[in-house]
TrEMBL record:
Identification of the protein by name: Carboxylic ester hydrolase
Superkingdom assignment: Eukaryota
Disulfide bond as UniProt keyword: yes
Family: Belongs to the tannase family.
GO molecular function: feruloyl esterase activity; metal ion binding
UniProt organism field: Cadophora malorum
SUPFAM superfamilies found in the cross-reference section: alpha/beta-Hydrolases
């Protein structure tokens, strides 16, 4: 279970490279001067009661290597900072929330950064995101939202008792603790430096992306700029839709192997890869891909040296995962995964022993169904039928949309406050559906046709959840956000760079939605070989039905 959880829990804030530093505060800012509970008072936070505050100097800190640290520069060493921890409660709500603020001892750049979490973790599960921001001169803060950060399940806090959701902790996780952290973090920063931050930024992906958009929607004055990657918005819908592939397998009583599903995905990629003008193993135009997996049924494929045959169950499952959740009358419930998404590392995972396979649901989705919708830690989602799944889907929306959905398209207050937001989503995301983010952007634009003056959305072909995959990842997106906020330079594209593969690195620009990337000639690993052009939907993929 924990391995599935990591694909969202390690959805990390963006690596803010190449930061300009307009102001550096070095006078009297060393590791010991001012770093004490006596020098940093409790902030003012309406509705909160503070329990404890500690401020401890940290000298020559080196970031331990973790799964999270893969998203950040290696060898972050020699950090000197004031480590402030503040605990508080909301009287009457039986919560205890912990906020951490790291304050650089030297060379503070005059800015504050809020760092997001992943999965059911309100904040990051390691120090890497904080250390990265700190190394670039930011004062950085995060919150645990009132529950532990490293547990792979929400079972430890979701229910007060059988049948009763811990609504206060859910509200803390969804929104309240995020606003509190911004207030507390900026207040501690001002106390330490005797100067308020000139700019405040949010940096997060997945749950962290949802948190950023929650700040824009409900607390528009807290952040000047928000970077929200692969945002887990439309929570009440998508979180149940994630279980759809597992439901289909349970109803078929058949659990295709990872080998078969990977072969089906490879066939889809082969059919749709060249729609952008170049065959490179990346589907850049999923909107033009009409691949029909049923055409493979009965054909042979190689499974680790063993000749196998595509099954009806395998092709049916792939089609269901790509189509998305549907009601009992086959009407739309939510979007599906893109054709290039890895089905075997996200939502259609199976476990096979001696040739017998069973489903292994994505724990964040199954937890939501059992703990929050059914309010029963013992509920077994494998017992769901099409009818009861339909009921669960609608119950989730009815009960939790107002708390955590984070899909309000009215960003007028954020716009009027002068804020800027960038969202981006990998088109090969294997757990959060990229069309849900595109749909949100379209709904914001429907309310405000001038949306691009403060909100821009970008799509990353070949990128999986938050970073991995074959495609170029927008690792300098945070710098683009800073330039937009502070210099008025709105990004037309986001520069992307892939992880090294066979000694090669792909560099491409990510297009501003709704534009798409087209190959114009030259080295396909070089960004200048592509252009962003308006989409022209309607072309059938070669070799597809």
């Amino acid at each position: 279970m924990y391995s599935e959880y990591k694909s969202m829990a390690y959805c990390l804030p963006q690596n803010p490279l190449l930061q300009s530093r307009p102001v550096q505060y070095t006078d009297a800012m060393n590791t010991t001067v001012g770093c004490s509970s006596a020098a940093i008072p409790y902030p003012s936070l309406y509705g909160a009661q503070f329990v404890n505050l500690t401020a401890v100097p940290v000298i020559n800190y080196t970031v331990p290597s973790t799964q999270e640290s893969l998203s950040y520069p290696n060898n972050i060493t020699g950090l000197n900072f004031c480590n402030v921890s503040i605990s508080y409660t909301h009287p009457g709500q039986n919560d205890l929330i912990n906020v951490r603020i790291w304050l650089p001892s030297n060379d503070w750049n005059g800015r504050f950064m809020g760092v997001g979490g992943g999965g059911y973790s309100t904040g990051p599960t390691s120090d890497s995101p904080l250390a990265n921001g700190l190394s670039l001169g930011y004062s950085v803060a995060t919150t645990d939202g009132g529950h532990e950060l490293v547990s792979p399940t929400a079972a430890t806090w979701a229910l007060n008792s059988p049948g009763n959701v811990n609504t206060y902790l859910l509200q803390d996780f969804a929104s309240v603790a995020l606003k509190d952290m911004a207030v507390i973090g900026k207040a501690a920063t001002e106390s330490f430096y005797q100067k308020a931050p000139a700019y405040s930024y949010w940096n997060g992906c997945s749950t962290g992306g949802r948190q950023g958009l929650m700040m824009a929607q409900r607390y528009p004055d807290e952040y000047d700029g928000i970077l929200a990657g692969a945002p887990a918005i439309n929570w009440a819908s998508f979180i149940v839709a994630e279980y759809w592939p597992q439901l289909i397998m349970n109803l078929m009583k058949s659990y295709p192997s990872a080998c078969e599903l990977n072969a089906i995905t490879a066939a889809a990629v082969a059919a749709c890869d060249a729609l952008d003008g170049v065959a490179d193993g990346i589907i850049s135009r999923p909107d033009l891909c009409y691949f029909e997996p049923g055409s493979l049924t009965g054909q042979s494929f190689d499974c680790e040296g063993v000749l196998s045959t595509f099954s009806n169950a395998g092709t049916t499952l792939a089609q269901a995962a790509w189509t998305g959740a549907r009601s009992t009358n086959n009407s739309f419930l939510w979007y599906g995964l893109s054709y290039g998404a890895n089905l075997t590392t996200g939502l259609a995972v199976t476990t096979c022993t001696n040739g017998t396979c069973t489903g292994r649901p994505f724990s964040i989705s199954s937890d939501w169904i059992s703990l929050f919708v059914q309010k029963n830690a013992s509920f077994d989602p494998t017992t769901l039928t099409r009818s009861t799944y339909n009921d669960v889907f609608h119950a989730s929306k009815q009960q939790f949309t107002s708390i955590i959905d984070t899909a309000d398209p009215d960003l007028s207050s954020f716009r009027d406050a002068g804020g800027k937001v960038i969202t981006w989503h990998g088109l090969s995301d294997n757990v959060i559906f990229p069309e849900g983010t595109a749909d949100y952007f379209k709904r914001v634009k429907a309310m405000d046709p001038d949306v691009e003056s403060y909100y821009r959305h970008f799509r990353a072909p070949g990128v999986e959840h938050c970073r991995s995959g074959l495609g170029p990842y927008p690792k300098t997106a945070f710098e683009s956000l800073v330039q937009w906020v502070e210099k008025g330079i709105a990004p037309e594209v986001l520069a992307g760079e892939s992880l090294p593969l066979n000694g090669s690195v792909i560099q491409r620009n990510l297009c501003m939605y709704p534009q798409d990337l087209f190959y114009t000639g030259g080295d396909p690993n070089v960004a200048s070989s592509f252009r962003c052009l308006s989409s022209k939907a309607g072309t059938t993929a070669p070799g597809s039905a």
